[in-house]
């Protein structure tokens, strides 16, 4: 009896592995950060090709799932970070210092996002984003932006809650969008300050 | 035992094949991509605010606008006549990106690459382009001509307004934007 069921059992096992493995691998690959064709500067990641016909199949599949409104190449480039400069994940219960410069661009906007990319909604009067014309800078153009639940002097964005979050820089009209290593690009350092007791 | 190892290996190979097939065919079966979600919008009309369209036609946001940027979109069908994208006015920054229905970028530009600061772009298929080269209609003078093979897609137009005092100007610019067919004379 058992002998007669051996072949169907092995076929069933192979099919079960194929379907569960295939679907799981696809879901994981689409949810993960894209490791291909990206421009990495420290913790910052950008994908200049994501919206083009030259994008890799994973980007195209992601666009099919709704991610189809990114910036065109002449429009600009989006840099995202989900870890600080040391590699530790960004946590909303901590305070951070974002300091340095961004690549040349006409105007940039910095905002905080949830990990899956949706925007975190700071309640008014707190601003959810900063832009290049509103930021105070040092004489050499460098800036320091503090993120945290406590108001600070200088550049400050409200950050509170718990769990992971991301930082996005939208650089509009930037030569970085068409650049793969020709210009030495610089992005700010992200430094963790004190954390709220969890 | 050998059969078990063989079954597991066959399963893993099958998983790999299935993974590749799903990834490669997703764009062809998608019902949740941007173009599908805006396919109920009138084509070749005017630019509509993406946030309002999102609220009307879909549960998720089409475009994630920031407090300082606004995106308008227009669906186009390029068939009988070239599509003329036009907007007048002054904003600190605008940019434009044309996508096909699979969200591949066909063309993008920003205000620095336009003549005179306003938006003036014409999309045409190769046949229409030949006729445009023979004689440009007066309406299309100074327009950036973009030749493309695609028959339908969408256009996103973004403005960045760093200051509330410029919001009125930006709204004028955005709501004046059209993406109409420009019939060619026979």
UniProtKB/TrEMBL annotation, chain A:
Domain DUF1214, chain residue ranges per copy: 76-173
Top-level taxon: Bacteria
UniProt-listed Gene3D superfamilies: Domain of unknown function DUF1214, C-terminal domain (2.60.120.600)
InterPro entries: DUF1214 (IPR010621), DUF1214_C_sf (IPR037049), UCP009471 (IPR012038)
Protein name as catalogued: DUF1214 domain-containing protein
